Structure formats: structure tokens, C-alpha cells
Amino acid sequence: MSLMFNLCYNLKNINISNFKTDNVTNMAGMFNGCISLTDLNFSNFNTDNVTDMKCMFNGCKKLKELNFSNFNTNNVTDMGAMFRECLSLKELNLSNFNTSKVTKMFRMFPECSSLKELNLSSFNTNNITDMACMFSRCSSLKELNISNFNINAKTLIYSMFDGCSEELKSKIKKQNKNIKIE
Questions:
Q1: If DSSP codes are grouped into helix, strand and coil, which group holds residue 13?
Q2: Which of 32, 61, 65, 137 is most buried when burial is the number of CB atoms within 10 A of its CB?
Q3: Alpha helix positions (H), 21-63
Q4: Cα(158)–Cα(181) distance, rounded to whole angstroms?
Q5: How far is it, in rounded angstroms, from Cα 57 to Cα 60?
Q6: Residue 72, exposed/middle/buried by CB under 10 A (0-12, 13-18, 19+)?
């Protein structure tokens, strides 16, 4: 399903409730660049075998909410740019995401400028090698829980908080001593 609806600029909503995704391994860029998409219900998706979700919702500028309550991310290794430029997302509950196999979260949330809070305390970051620009230009972000992030010396974290408020950066410094903020 990689790039299945890639750059469908005029697509506003789509009924994907009957999609059978049991054998799908790649959903990279599935809705990439769907700038007019306002509604998306993928609650029937079986993501048990998916390993790649990079850019899955990249550029979905008008999506206001996404429900991941049935998503299984146990086998996912790449979440890079998954929510990049989701300008209208007001909230995002990723508490059920299993990120133990993920190695890339590069540009996962940049320009999610309507997000005010994000709790990623359940994220396992032990295998992450790239978190660069992860929250850059999330200008409305006031609360970010990354208290359990484990970042080692080899993890790329440059520009992780570029364009975020100084208030948020200060909170992050107090919350997690492993994260160096430029």
C-alpha cells in the first residue's frame, strides 16, 4: 500500500473501511500529500505485519483527528515523517504505539502547528538512531512528555526542537536530562 493515495490533492474523504490489510507490510506514504483530506477512518486496518509507516500522513494539512486505538505497531521499524505537516491535528493519542523496533523517527511531527500537547511517555526509544527535527516548528506545543526517552550518544537529535517555544524547551530540559537542546 506504499504511496497508494500519494499526492491525491483533491481527495477530501475516502471510505477504506472494507480494506483487507492483514498481509500488508508497507504503508509508507499511503496518504502522503493528501492536502485536502479532512476525514479518515482506518479503524478496521490490521497493521500486525506492517514494518514501514514513514510519511504515512505526511502533508495531510486538513486532518483534524486520527484514531489509532486499533493500530498495532509491534513490527514497525520506520516512523520517519509520519505526521509531518499535519497542520490541523489538534490532538494525537499514540499511547498504544509499540515503538520497540523503531529505528527512525526523523521529522515525525514537524509543523504539527495545532498540536498543544503530546504524551509520548509510552514510547520505547532504545533502538532509535535518528530523531532529528522530530518536533521542529511545533509552535503551539505547550506540553510534551518524553520523560522516558532513552537517547544514546549515537542517536541523531539535531534540530529536534527548532521553532518550539523557549518555555517548552525549558520544560524538556528539566524533564529529561538525556536530551541536549541547542
A1: strand
A2: 32
A3: none
A4: 8
A5: 6
A6: middle
Q: What is the spatial distance between Cα 33 and Cα 44, in angstroms, rounded to a whole number?
A: 22
**Cβ(38)–Cβ(66) below 8 Å:** no
143 contact partners, CB below 8 Å, separation of at least 6: 116, 117, 118, 119, 171
Instruction: Give the pLDDT score at 182.
Output: 65
- Taking the model in full, what pTM does it have? 0.95
Cell numbers at residue 117, please?
500537547
Helix H or strand E encompassing 169: helix 166-175
CA separation, residue 117 to residues 6, 44, 112, 139 (Å): 28, 27, 11, 11
Beta bridge partners of 143: 117
What are the DSSP calls for 155-167, one per residue?
SB-TTTTTTS-HH
Residue 166 makes CB contacts below 8 A (sequence gap 6+) with none
Residue 146 to residue 66: CA distance in whole angstroms: 21
pLDDT tens-digit map of 68-111: 998 999 999 999 999 999 999 999 999 999 999 999 999 999 99
